[in-house]
Design goal:
The complex is a heterodimer. Chain A has no helices and eleven strands. Chain A is mainly beta. In chain A, the strands form two sheets. In chain A, strands 2, 4, 5, 6, 9, 10 and 11 form a seven-stranded mixed sheet that branches. A four-stranded antiparallel sheet of chain A has the order 1-3-8-7, with no helix packed on it. In chain A, β4 and β5 form a beta hairpin. The radius of gyration of chain A is 13 Å and the shape is globular. Helix content of chain B is 0%, strand content 53%. In chain B, strands 2, 5, 6, 10, 11 and 12 form a six-stranded mixed sheet that branches. In chain B, strands 3-9-8-7 form a four-stranded antiparallel sheet, with no helix packed on it. In chain B, a hairpin with a 4-residue loop joins β8 and β9. Chain B is globular and about 40 Å long. The chains are: A mainly beta, B mainly beta. The interface between A and B is medium-sized, with 25 and 23 residues.
């Protein structure tokens, strides 16, 4: 399957712990996005990469959050000192920068529960 | 920042009937892209249909079509001959012409009644 994959699908952690999520985009896609989706809301943009460069970060991305995309392939999103308010679905999407629609393809998400 | 509003948190439709989901948006840009995504329960979001603002013709994809009213900043989705598999959350999304991020609405939960 050549779709966007995310790992893990579910993560339960205790408040104050660090967590890391991984996203593998569609192989030829040079753009990768992270979104957060809370219950009853649509996805909210967190950050995006073009190849290995992180080009834009949302104000939602506090200093406890860090994202990387080494070598322009997979990406990781780390949350340090988790808080209960971090409980959400974290979605990854990828796209091919080729003008036009720049359609984003989404992964299944990682559901984070902070106890 | 651009905002996308979906005023119908929940909708239901009888199988084989037609349903319309509404979406409005706010932008000062003249060219942009609009999308409808479908998110089935516990499954990933998939693109249903897309529209570029400078194209006046409404997009159509099989049973899915849109009514794009640029002046009114409205982008509704019509699902014809509804099927049980259409049951899902539907999100309307906006992307500026030179923008990178998508702006999503809060979604409409569609139930299809057999």
């Amino acid at each position: 399957d050549t779709g966007v994959s995310q790992d893990p699908r579910h993560k339960i952690t205790k408040r104050g712990q660090n967590v890391t999520f991984r996203c593998d985009p569609i192989s030829e896609h040079n753009r990768l996005y992270w979104y957060r989706q809370t219950l009853g809301q649509g996805p909210e943009f967190l950050t995006y990469f073009q190849n290995e460069a992180q080009l834009e970060k949302s104000r939602l991305l506090s200093d406890r959050f860090s994202a990387e995309r080494p070598k322009g392939s997979f990406s990781t999103l780390e949350i340090q000192r988790t808080e209960q308010g971090d409980s959400a679905m974290y979605l990854c999407a990828s796209s091919l920068l080729a003008g036009g629609y720049n359609e984003q393809f989404f992964g299944p998400g990682t559901r984070l529960t902070v106890l | 920042a651009q905002t996308v509003t979906q005023s119908q948190p929940e909708m239901s439709v009888q199988e084989a009937e037609t349903v319309t989901l509404s979406c409005t948006y706010d932008t000062s840009e003249s060219d942009y892209y609009l999308f409808w995504y479908k998110q089935p329960p516990s499954r990933q979001m998939i693109l249903v249909i897309r529209q570029e603002a400078y194209k006046q013709q409404n997009a159509t994809e099989n049973r899915f079509s849109v009514n794009f009213q640029k002046a009114a900043k409205s982008f509704s989705l019509k699902i014809s001959d509804s099927q049980l598999g259409d049951a899902a959350m539907y999100f309307c999304a906006y992307r500026g012409y030179d923008g990178n991020q998508f702006y999503f609405g809060t979604g409409t939960s569609l139930t299809v009644i057999p």
